Amino acid sequence: NREPLIFELGGKGRTGIAIPEPEEEVKRRVGRVEIPSEMRRDREPGLPELSEVEVVRHFTNLSQAAFGVDNGPVPLGSCTMKYNPRIAWEIAGDPRITNLHPLQDERTVQGLLEMLFELQKWLANITGMDTCILHPAAGAHGELAGVLTIRRYHEVKGQIDRKTEIVIPDSAHGTNPASAAMAGFRVVEVPSAEDGNVDMEALKSIVGDSTAGLMITNPSTLGLFEEHITDIARLLHEHDALLYYDGANLNGIMGYARPGDMGFDIAHINIHKTFGAPHGGGGPGAGPVCIKDRVVDKEKGVRLSDLAPGYRVIYDEDTGLYRVKGPGEHSAGLLKAFLGNITPLIWGYVYILSMGPQGLRKATEHAVLITNYFMKLMENVKGYTIPYGKGRFRKHEVVLSAQPMAEEIGVTAEDVAKGLLDAGFYAPTIYFPLIVKEALMVEFTESETPENVEKYVERLKEISRIAYSNPSEPKTWPRNTSVGRVDVVKANHPKHVTPTWRIHVKRLRGEI
Amino acid sequence: NREPLIFELGGKGRTGIAIPEPEEEVKRRVGRVEIPSEMRRDREPGLPELSEVEVVRHFTNLSQAAFGVDNGPVPLGSCTMKYNPRIAWEIAGDPRITNLHPLQDERTVQGLLEMLFELQKWLANITGMDTCILHPAAGAHGELAGVLTIRRYHEVKGQIDRKTEIVIPDSAHGTNPASAAMAGFRVVEVPSAEDGNVDMEALKSIVGDSTAGLMITNPSTLGLFEEHITDIARLLHEHDALLYYDGANLNGIMGYARPGDMGFDIAHINIHKTFGAPHGGGGPGAGPVCIKDRVVDKEKGVRLSDLAPGYRVIYDEDTGLYRVKGPGEHSAGLLKAFLGNITPLIWGYVYILSMGPQGLRKATEHAVLITNYFMKLMENVKGYTIPYGKGRFRKHEVVLSAQPMAEEIGVTAEDVAKGLLDAGFYAPTIYFPLIVKEALMVEFTESETPENVEKYVERLKEISRIAYSNPSEPKTWPRNTSVGRVDVVKANHPKHVTPTWRIHVKRLRGEI
Amino acid sequence: MIETKSHPWIPSLTEESVKKMLEVIGVGSVSELFKDIPSEILLGEDSWNKLEIGLGRPLSEIEVKELVEEKLSRNKVFNPPPFMGGGVYPHYVPPVVRYIISRGEFLTAYTPYQAEISQGLMQALFEYQSMMAELLEMDIVNASMYDWASSIAEAALMAFRVRKGRRKILLPGNMNPLHRRVVETYVKPQGLMIETIPFDRELGTVDAEAVKSMVDGDTAAVYVQYPNFFGIIEDNVKAIGEIAHEKGALFITGVYPVALGLLKPPGELGADIAVGDGQSLGLGMNYGGPHLGIFAVRYDMNLVRQMPGRIIGLTTTIDGSSKAFAMVWQAREQHIRREKATSNICTNEALMAVASAVYMALLGKTGLRRLAELVYYRAHYASSRMSDIGLTRVFKGEFFNEFPVSFNNIGVKYSAVHEKLLEHGIHGGLYIGSYYPELGEVALYAFTELHSVKAIDRLIETLKKAIEEVRGR
Amino acid sequence: MIETKSHPWIPSLTEESVKKMLEVIGVGSVSELFKDIPSEILLGEDSWNKLEIGLGRPLSEIEVKELVEEKLSRNKVFNPPPFMGGGVYPHYVPPVVRYIISRGEFLTAYTPYQAEISQGLMQALFEYQSMMAELLEMDIVNASMYDWASSIAEAALMAFRVRKGRRKILLPGNMNPLHRRVVETYVKPQGLMIETIPFDRELGTVDAEAVKSMVDGDTAAVYVQYPNFFGIIEDNVKAIGEIAHEKGALFITGVYPVALGLLKPPGELGADIAVGDGQSLGLGMNYGGPHLGIFAVRYDMNLVRQMPGRIIGLTTTIDGSSKAFAMVWQAREQHIRREKATSNICTNEALMAVASAVYMALLGKTGLRRLAELVYYRAHYASSRMSDIGLTRVFKGEFFNEFPVSFNNIGVKYSAVHEKLLEHGIHGGLYIGSYYPELGEVALYAFTELHSVKAIDRLIETLKKAIEEVRGR
Fold first, then answer.
1. Judgement on whether residues B150 and B292 belong to the same structural domain of the protein
2. With bands split at pLDDT 50, 70 and 90, how would you rate the model's confidence at B512?
3. A301 within domain boundaries
4. Which residue of chain B comes nearest to C6, CA vs CA?
5. For D303-324, what is each residue's pLDDT tens digit?
6. Start and end of every Glycine cleavage system P-protein N-terminal domain (chains C, D) (predicted)?
7. Share of chain C above pLDDT 70, in %
8. Chain C residues 420-459 with CB within 8 Å of chain A
9. Are D144 and B283 a contacting pair at CB < 8 A?
10. Closest CA to A453 of C220, B11, C387
11. pLDDT tens digit string along A217-260?
C-alpha cells in the first residue's frame, strides 16, 4: 500500500476548494463575527492541506486498492452482491432528487413521492404483504423496526410483560439477535436439523406463552428453503406470537414464494441486496419493512401496520396529492429523522421498474441455477464438504466447509479466502453461519457469468492441491493484493490499536 | 496485462443493453422491413457478446491500466497536462449541453451561444487579437485554419502564385510543417541559435518575396522566450508575409505578453492545454483561432478575419439574440461540419471564468516558477545537460538532454523515460525538439506540487546513479507497469503488424 | 417491451448457458430447483406476472428513462435553495466528491471484510474517522451511523450500558424535535426514561440551572445540541458538561459540523460522546437520506468497549513490511457478539463517510473556518435585512446560521406567507409552530453559502411583497 | 470574490512554496523570470487585470455554478428530442458509456506515447478499431478523426496521394452538404477538383449512369454516402464502386453506422476507404461536437502507407511474456514525418472512440440489428402517419430512418409550421430548402429509438394542428 495517509500529503497554506470571502456590503452591515468567547474555537482543526488535484489523486489511488462488483466476482454469501445498473446510478444522482430538502413543501416533490408510493406498493406485492414502510436505513434497521412492531403488538394487547422472548434459529444472521435485544427481548435459539430445516421438535418445545415472535430467514443462510415454514407459522400464531421474515435471502425465492403467503406477519427487504442498489463499501442501504394488515385491536381499529415505526407515503384522493404521513399514535415512533434512504430506494425503484415481474423471477431463477451449478462442480473436491441438506438443491447460496482441510493439514477457511483474493476474486463470507465449521458461504447471484463460476471452482481446486502438497504455502497468501496478510492481532492490541490519526500522533508523542 | 481482449470475453446470446422490440401497432402498420436485397446485410457483425456487468468490469480494469493527471504527474513537454477541474466536468456534461442538436433553432440554445460568444471575446483579450473562431477541433486543426487563412490572404491579394513558402523554426512541433503542407505551402526551415532564439541572420536570408508566412511558437519548445519576436514580425510584415502563433506554449506567458502585441496576425489556442480541458487519451481537443482585424482589401471591405474558416457566434443587436454565422464568401470554408468541439470549449469557458485574469496570470507564474525550480535542481546532475539558452530562465518547460549518458554508457532518453514510469511518474516528451539530442522535454504546469518535482528530480538522479553503476539495468525497465517493455519493432513488422482483431484472426487463419 | 431471451443484467440468461447448467446439475428444468417449496405457497408464473410490480413487464432503459423523466419533472429544485434547515442544510457539494463516490471500486464494494483486497476503502474510512476526529477533537470516531438522530439514540443506549443501573437521560427542550422522537423509540423498549431540560424563553438557550437540579445519581447522560434547534449558540455547554460529570453522568453533545469552523469542538467542551450529521460536509440533502451519523468518543476503554458501529484501525502487515488497515474491536459488533452486541448496526453509511472525507480533505485546515464565517455572515445579513421589514428574531441568544422569525407581531399566518413565497418561486423557512405551539406563527430560517446576497435580497423583497399581499386579502 | 493567497488548482501558490522556490532559483521575485520579454510587449499586471476576461476576477465554484446555471436554463432540451438528423442523431447514450469515459484514468490521460503505462487506454483504442472494423467489415480502422466531414476530406487527400497525378474527385449531389463544404476546404489548396454526381430526382439515389460517364483516368476517387442525405438507401453502391475501380479510381463510402444493422457494410460493397461518424454510437449530440470521425481502409499497404491518423497495434512485450499494445506505422504521422506526413492530425477524438467502443460492446452481435430495425420501424411508422395527414415524402427510394417531407402540396411555408411546432414544445425536422432551393418547402425528418410511438403520435397531431393554424391565418 504505497499511497500515503492524507495527513502525510499536501503543504502549508494549500486548499482544495475556494470558499469566497463574505461580500463587503455584508461585512459592513453585520460587523464582526460575535461568538461567545467561551464557545469560540481558538485553533484550526488539524486537517491536512491539499490542493484539488492532490485530493483527486489520493482518492483515485485509494479506489484502485478497493474491490467491488465492478472489478470482479464478489460472491459473499448472504450479501447478494449483484451488479448495480448504471441507469439507476444516473437517475438516483439526478439533482431533482439529490437537491430536495426533506421538509420542503410536499407539492414540490410530487414526482419523488409518487415513485416512493409505487415502490411501497410493488414491494408489498413482491412480499405478499399489505403495507410497506420505506423508513429503515438498512437491513438491521428494518429488523429493529420489525421487532419494535412485535413489541408494540404485545403492548397494545396488554401482554408485553409475558411476551418476553424472540426465537431465532442458530443459523441466523447476527443482526437478528442483536435487533431483538435492542427491542428489549430475550433471545432464544432454536437448532437446525441435519436437513437444514429448523428442528421442529426443538421448536415446539421452545415456543410457548412467553414467545413474542420468531425471526427467520427463508431460504436459510445455508441456502435451503425451510420446508416446514407453514407449520412454523401455525405454531407461532397458535401462541399469539408473530413471525418475522429476514429478507436478506429473498433473492432465492422472489417470484416463486412470498413471505406473506408463508404466514409471515412482518418482513424486511434489503434494497441494496435483492434490488440492485450498491453497497457503497458498507452503506447506505435501505431496509423497508412490509407488514400484514392484521387486526390488533378491533375496537380501536388498530392494525399491525399502524404499530410500525416511520413515515408512510400516502395518496390523498381529495387533493390528488401524495403526502408524507408521520407515525401515528400507536406507532413505535421514528428510527431516523426523515423518510428513508432515498438514493438506494430509487435504485430499487429503477431496478424493479426495469425488470418487471418477469425479470425479477428470471433473476431468482438464475441466482438459483448458478448456485446449484457451482455446488455440483464442487461436489467431491478434496478438502471441502457441503454440510447440511444432503441431496437438496440450494437456492441463492451454498455453504461449503473447509473442515477436512483444516483438520487434516491446518489450512483454514481464512487461508482459502486469501487464496481466492490472489486469483482476482473477492472471498466468500467465512466462518458463517456459525453452525458450519470452517464455513465458506458462497453467493454468486444472477449477475455472475458461468465462466467466472468455473474459474472460481478451478481456483478452489487449485488451492486444495497446493494446500495438500505444501500446507505452509497458504499461510503466505495473499500475495497479489496491495498488501500482504494484515496483522489483525496487532491492530487490536491495546498498545497498538490506532483508530484515528489523532491517536497515532498521540502514541508517537508518548501521550498514550 | 491480464485483462483479456473484449473479443475473448462474453458468451453466445448475451447482450449489454436491451433494445426494445418495435411496438405491435408499429409493426402492423409498417409491415416487414424492406431493404433492397443487394443492400441487406446478411450476417451479423463480428462483435463480442457481453452482459452489462462484463462491459463495466472490462473497461474498469482497462482504465486501471491507464495513467492520467488524476493518477500522478504527467510532465509531458509542450502538452501542458494540467489538472482538469471537476467543476468543468460537471458543467460540460450537463444534458442541457450534451443533448442539444447543432441544427436546432437558435432561439432554443441562447445560453450556450452566449457562453461561446463570451469565450470568443475572452480569448481575443487573452491573445491580444480581435476576433476568435472556435471551430477547429484541435491544435493542428487550428493551425490548418490559420495557414488556410494565410493562403486566402495571398489569394485575395492576388499574390498566391508568388507566396509559396511558410518559414518554420527547426524547433517547431511536427504539426506546423504538416499543416503548412496541407494548405499547399512549401516549408522552409530556419535554424535556432545557441541562445535558443531564432537565428536572425539565417531568417533574414530566408524571408523574401516567396514567403507567405512564418509559424512559430513563443515561448519555443525549448521553453525560451523568443527575444527578437518584434523584429521577426517587422521583417515578415515588410515582405507582406503573415505571422502565425502556435499557441501550444501559451501557458508560459499568459498574462505577461500577448501574441497580438508581439505582432502576430493569427494565433491558435489549445483549450485542452492552456485552459484545463482534459486530453481524454488523445482528444477531443479544441483549437480556436484568433485573428487580427487587419484590412486585406479596403475597397471590398475584406478583413483578415473574414478569410478564416468556420462559424462565428455573433450577437444580433436588433433581435437581442445570439446567432451562428456560417463562413462568408471570402472565408476558407469549413473544417468540420459544425461549430466546434463544444465539450472542451465549455471546460475552457469554466476555467477562464473561474480564474479570471488574476488567476490566469498566477497560473503562468507558477508554471514558470516550478519549471525554473526544476531546472535549478537539475543543474550539474551527472549524465544530463541543459542545452541552449545557457543562463536564461525558462518559461513553461525545459528541455534536458541525456546525451552524456547515451554517449558514455549507452543509456538513452528512452531508458530514462522507462525508469521514470517505474517510480509512478509519466515520462517526459522524449526525442523532441529534434534539435536536442536525447531530449527530455519536461513541463510540470502550475498544477504540480513542488514535492512531486523534487521526487522527480530524485528519481532522475537515481536513474543516473544506477545507469553509471550498471548500464545494462535501465534496459530492463519498466518493471512496475502493467507490462514490461513493449516490442515496438514487432508491432510494426509486416509479418506481425496487427491493427485490429480482424487482422489477428485472419493471421491465425493464415489468410494473411 | 423487451424480450427476455437474454438480459443485460443476467449474463447466464441465454439458451446455451441454461442448457449447460441444467445438464451439469442433472435436472430437466429450472423449476425442479424449486420443488422443495410446498405447493400451497408456490407461486405460479402467471399469477406472479399479473401482480402489480413495476409496469407488469420488463422495460428497456430507454423506456425507463422516459418514464422517470416525467416524474422527475414534477420535483422542484429551488434556486436559490430553500431557506430552510432544521437539521438538513443545502450546502455546496463539490463535483470532486460526487466523482470519487461514483467510482465503481468504492460504489460497488461490500463492507471490507477481506482486508487485503480492500485497503483503499479501509484507508478512506480511516481517514474519514481521523479527519472527523480532528474536527471534533475527539479521539475515536466510528465509520458512521445512519444519521444524527439515530446517533443520539445509540449514544443514549451506550450511556445506559456504561452507567449500568442508571435509568434516566436528560434531553433539552431546544434540541431537534425529530431527533428527540428517535431517541424515544430506541430508549423506551429498554424501560428507560427521558426527562426534558427546559430552555430559556428569552435567550433560547438551555437552562443550566435546571440541569443542575435535574441531574442525579440515576442520570446516565445529559445531551446538549449546539447550535440548538433554534440556531442559537449554546454558551454554557462546558458548564452543563461539568454538572453532568459531577453526578457521574456522561455528557453527550450534538453538533452541526459546519459550525465547528467557529465554535469550540466537543472535545474541548468535555464531551464523552459527540454526535452530529455529516450531511453538511459534502452530501446532498437527498430528501432526508442517505445522510451520515457522526459518532465519536473519548479514548477511554470503558467507553470504547460500549461503542456501537464499525471502526477501522491502522496496523501493519504480519511481516511488518507495510502499513495496513483492519477492522478493530469487532467483538463489540453483532456479527460476533450477536444479542450481546453494542448495537445491531451492520450496513452503515460508508460511502457517505468517504464523501465526507473527500469534502474535509478539500476544505483543509482553514476551509472550515472560512465556510463557517461565510455562513455566519450571510445569516446575520439576512437577519438584519429581515428586521428592516419588521421581521424579528424570536430569541435573543447569539445565533450561527439559522433563527426562528416571528410573524406574530405583524399579524399574519405563516402558512399564507409561505404560499405567496411559493408563488414567487421561493421556498421560505420551516414552520415550527407545530413543534412549539406556544411560539405561535414562527418559521425557522436557515442560510448557507448557497444563499448569495442577491438571493437573500430577493427573499427579503419577496417576503415583504408576500406579507403585503397576505394583509391585502 | 475569492482570495488569491492560495488556489485549489495551483498547489504551489502559497507563501511558503513561493519563497522556497525563489530562493533555490536565486531570484527575488517571480517577475524576474519574465525579464527576457521585451518591455514594449510586457503587460503590466494592472492592464492585464483590466481586460474583459471572465468576470474580471476569480470566482469560487459556488459563484461559477450559480452563473452557469442561469445560462444553461436558457438551453432547451426537447422531450421528445428534435425530429431532426442531417448527420447528427439523438440516440440513447447508456449511462455506462458516460461512466466509463468519466473515469479519470481515461479522461485525464494524454496520447499514449509511453506504451507500458498506457496499456489500458491502448487496448481500449485497439478494441474500438477492432469493433468498428467488424461493423464495417474493413480491416484497418484508425483511432479516430475529428468527424465524418473531415474524414471524407482526409480520404479525398489520401486518394490523391494513392492515385498520384489524378486531379479529380467525384462527390454525389445527395451527400450531406456540410460534408461537401469541408471536402472543398481541404481539397482546393492542393489545386484539385471536385465534380458533382447528379441524383435521380424521383428516387433520390445517385445516378449510376452519370457516374459511368464521369469517371475517367483523372479521377482519383468516387464517394457515395449511404443512406444518403435524404435518408435514402442507395441501392447501387456496389455497382458504383465497380465503375470507379474499372477506371482505377478509389471507392470511398460514407455510412451512418446505425444503418449497418440492416445494410451491407462498406467492406462487402467494395470500399477502399470507409468513413462515417461515430456520434450515433454512444455519444451525445453535443451541439455538433465532439463527434467521432470514422476512417477505415482495406489491408493493402498502398492504402495503409497513405492513411492518416493514429493506429494502435497488438504486439507483445520484448520478452514475449505478455500481449501488449503499441502505436504502429507512426512514420506516417506528423511528429515523425513533419511536412511529408499523411496528415497534420495529432489530437483526435480518442475519448469518443473509447465511448463508442463501450457502446459497441454493450450492443454486441445482435444489438445493432435490433437497434436498426427499431429505428427503421419508427421512421416508417412516422412516414405512414404523416401521409394520413397529407404529408408526403419527396423521394420514392426506400429509406432508413430519415426522409424529406414536402409541404409544397399543402401550400404552407415550413418556417411557419416550424414556428407553431415550437410553440407546442416540439422541434420538427430540418428545413433543407436552403441547400436545395429546387425542392421548395421541404423539411428532413429523422427518427431514432428515442422517438416513441407516443412521441410520434404527438408529433403528427401537433403537425396537423400547426398546419391548420398556419392555414387559418
1. yes
2. confident
3. yes
4. B14
5. 999 999 999 999 999 999 999 9
6. 14-463
7. 99
8. 422, 427, 430, 449, 453
9. yes
10. B11
11. 999 999 999 999 999 999 999 999 999 999 999 999 999 999 99
Judge if B188 and B222 occupy the same domain.
yes
Position A199 in a domain: yes
Chain D partners (3+ C-beta pairs within 8 A): A, B, C
Sorted by sequence, the CB contacts under 8 Å of residue B77 that are 6+ apart come out as B221, B223, B397, B398, B399, B428, B429, B432, B440, B441, B442, B443
Are C11 and B51 in contact (CB < 8 Å)? Answer: yes
Q: Quote the DSSP letter at residue A185.
A: P
Residues B383 and B434 reside in one and the same domain: yes
Chain C interface residues (partner D, CB cutoff 8 A)? 8, 61-63, 65-66, 69, 79, 92, 94-95, 99, 102-104, 362, 449-450, 452
The pLDDT tens digits of the residues spanning D89-113 come to 999 999 999 999 999 999 999 999 9
Q: Which residues of C touch A115 (CB under 8 A)?
A: 68, 71
Q: How many CA atoms lie less than 13 Å away from A140 in the CB half-sphere?
A: 31
pLDDT > 80? residue D4:
no
pLDDT of residue C281: 98
- Select the residue of A45, A122, A356 nearest C57 (Cβ to Cβ): A356
Q: Which band of pLDDT confidence, cut at 50, 70 and 90, is reported for residue B93?
A: very high
Question: Structural domain of residue A44, as residue ranges?
Answer: 6-64
Residues of A in contact with C179 (CB under 8 A): 337
Cβ of B20 within 8 Å of Cβ of C9? The answer is no
Interface of C with B in 180-219 (CB under 8 A): none
> Tens digit of pLDDT for each residue in B123-173?
999 999 999 999 999 999 999 999 999 999 999 999 999 999 999 999 999
What amino acid is encoded at A362 in this protein? Answer: K
Our CA-based measurement puts residue C363 at a distance from the nearest CA of chain D, in whole angstroms, of 10
- B chain contacts of residue C362, beta-carbon cutoff 8 Å: none
CA distances from A399 to A196, A385, A436 (A): 11, 9, 8
C-alpha cell at C109: 464494494
Q: For residue C4, what pLDDT is reported? A: 59
Residue C1 pLDDT exceeds 80: no
Number of residues written out for chain C: 473
Domains parsed from chain D with CATH numbers? 15-72 (no CATH), 95-360 (3.40.640.10), 366-472 (3.90.1150.10)
A141 contacts in C (CB within 8 Å)? 146, 150, 344-345
pLDDT digits (tens, 9 = 90+) for C285-339: 999 999 999 999 999 999 999 999 999 999 999 999 999 999 999 988 888 888 8
With an 8 Å Cβ cutoff, is A447 touching chain C?
Answer: yes
- Residue B91 forms part of a structural domain: no
C94·B86 Cβ contact <8 A? yes
Contacts with A54 from chain D: Cβ below 8 Å: 11
Query: Side by side, which strands form the sheet with C402-406?
Result: C392-393, C402-406, C442-446, C430-431
* D340 pLDDT tier (thresholds 50, 70, 90): confident
Report the alpha-carbon distance of residue A504 to residue C325 in Å, rounded.
13
| Distances, alpha carbon C130 to alpha carbons A162, A498, A503, C127, C326, in Å | 46, 10, 9, 5, 15
Q: What is the pLDDT of residues C219-233, one digit of tens each?
A: 999 999 999 999 999
Q: Subunits with at least 3 CB pairs below 8 A relative to chain C?
A: A, B, D
Q: Is the pLDDT of residue C441 over 60?
A: yes
D140-176 burial, b at 16+ Cβ within 10 Å, e below that, comes to bbbbbbbbbbbbbbbbbbbbbbbbeebebbbbbbbbb
What pLDDT is stored for residue C340 in this prediction? 87
Segments in chain A below pLDDT 50: none
- Please list every residue in chain B whose beta carbon sits closer than 8 Å to the beta carbon of residue A71: 57, 60-61
- Is C60 at the interface with chain B, CB within 8 A? yes
Pairing of strands A312-316, D442-446: unpaired
Asked if the Cβ–Cβ distance from A60 to D11 is below 8 Å, we say no
Spatial separation of the C-alpha atoms in residues C31 and C12, rounded to whole Å: 16
Domain count, chain B: 3
